[in-house]
Write a structure and sequence with these properties.
The chain is α+β, with helices and mostly antiparallel strands. Helices cover about 15% and strands about 15% of the residues. Strands 1, 2, 3, 4 and 5 form a five-stranded mixed sheet that branches. The chain is globular and about 30 Å long.
Length: about 160
């Protein structure tokens, strides 16, 4: 799994979001030549902020928030003195950044398209619970094959 972050003068970099969001943001700042004191976040190509810098998201794994192979724009987060509403400034010089993108980026209704909150099923349980269970409803466990054996994507051992 990877994501593409667009920044600078139409530059792109690939990142692995299979880590804590805090570590991903630190790596993005380092590889995209941002200062250590700069607060950054990501948005999609339409200007929807992902809110990775929020305290709630920093401890989550980034792959819980971001989609596989998603193309994102690096944005700088500037806090006002009153700390009320941060201002988001795109760090990409490209035709993607137009008036509609900037308007969406600065609007009060700016909500992440992925959303950092999990959707609840009708029975009140988290929707992520079903994905960790097999078809029978029991928890699935993965066993690594012994030495010299390889497993197929289905988890079955290959016959030699």
């Amino acid at each position: 799994m990877f994501i593409t972050v667009r920044y600078g003068d139409a530059e792109e970099a690939l990142f692995n979001p299979n880590c804590r969001t805090m570590l991903l943001l630190e790596n993005i700042k380092q590889r995209c030549c941002c200062g250590e004191d700069v607060e950054v976040d990501l948005s999609d190509n339409e200007g929807n902020i992902k809110y990775l810098h929020s305290a709630e998201s920093l401890q989550k794994y980034a792959n819980e928030i971001l989609k596989e192979r998603e193309i994102l724009v690096l944005v700088k987060v500037e806090r006002n003195e009153d700390g009320n509403k941060p201002q988001y400034i795109p760090l990409l010089n490209d035709e993607t950044i137009d008036a509609a993108f900037l308007a969406k980026l600065s609007s009060r209704e700016n909500v992440s398209s992925q959303g950092s909150k999990r959707k609840k099923r009708q029975d009140g349980k988290s929707s992520n619970l079903a994905s960790s269970r097999g078809r029978s409803g029991t928890k699935t466990t993965s066993h690594s094959p012994g030495p010299g054996k390889s497993a197929t994507p289905t988890g079955r051992s290959k016959k030699k």
